[in-house]
Queue: 3 jobs
Job 1
Amino acid sequence: MSKRVVVIHGHPDPSGGHFGTALAEAYVQGAVDQSHEVQVIDVAQLEFPLLRTKQEFESGPVPESIRQSQLVIQWAQHLVIIFPLWLGTMPALLKGFLEQIFRPGFAVGIGAPARSGKRPLSGKTARLVVTMGMPAFVYRWYFGAHGTRSLERSVLGFCGIGPIKESLIGGIESPDSTKRSEWLNRMRELGRKGG
């Protein structure tokens, strides 16, 4: 059965060419090969301001790039968010994007619906793909994968998205082309499965 998938590429460098870019392309290739419908949001290519006040977050104008991204996320059944680990968590630009996207009325109800626990994004699933220089097991076991846990629980899970799976890819600065090929193949396979 085909799925509607959005791949959110969260590397802040608009020039591309990073391993995360290759992972995103591999996922999309696998998904398209299996006849899944795929749209890509490249956060580095979008123009939007950072939110600075509660009023902006709750009722400020929504930039057009964010409005279009919200429509794509509403359309999707499965979200794939790919980003590099910076200072233990996602880059600031991706965090700013998510703050713009997951506003009241889009990701959680407003007023009484918010208190009732209604979550407009319920039924969607997600996968986080996180690249890092350190070994992934060190991030997971020593640091408790705190950056990904926060995104899973406090953003995606809070909005009703689940289950959420993760692919932590460590040691990406290593010149080991075999490992990179294995991860690219794994991303193609996940794309084929729409998972």
Job 2
Amino acid sequence: MTDAYTHIVADRMQDGETWTDFTARINDLLDPGNAFLLSYYSEDRLFSDEARTVLVEPDLKEIPPLAGN
């Protein structure tokens, strides 16, 4: 979850944007239930035993790469 979250947050950042403007625009990422991850991962995959121990790739849509990768 942490790896996916990092990539998605970085993808949504805009140069010169204030923290207040950024957080107002990313309410879905601030939801403590991490529901936004279910657009990338099926529930079975996201909450699987495998995903608790190793990095698993999304099965619904690709996670954006970090800049420079």
Job 3
Amino acid sequence: MFLGELFVFTFLGIKILLDRRAAANADYNQLLSPGGVVAGQLKMKTNINPMWLALPATCDVCGSTLMFVALTMVAPSVYQMMRGLIVVITALLSIIFLGRKQYRHHWTGVVLIITGVFIVGYVSVVGSSGDDS
């Protein structure tokens, strides 16, 4: 996964290099897609710094590392069920950051996921014998 993200940076660098070379030789509006031309007319920001990808990539590295450490401490089935909480976290973050409204069927799904994860976690804790054999 991390190599894939690094691979994307490689292609981004090549694209930036080619765009600079082409911009020196031609009119800039000819290089843009129709959406890019409209964005320029509306004065939208189109030159976003690609280093903004570093923050979520760092969080992804930390999260993946912690998940792999957790995988060494619990059964794979429990680990996989606990990963189901990503749906709950995504629903909450979409409310907070995107201002999206969650409807009754969304909340029903979130409650069912929380209930299922709780049951699996509870059974895992109660059913563990306490030794590592």
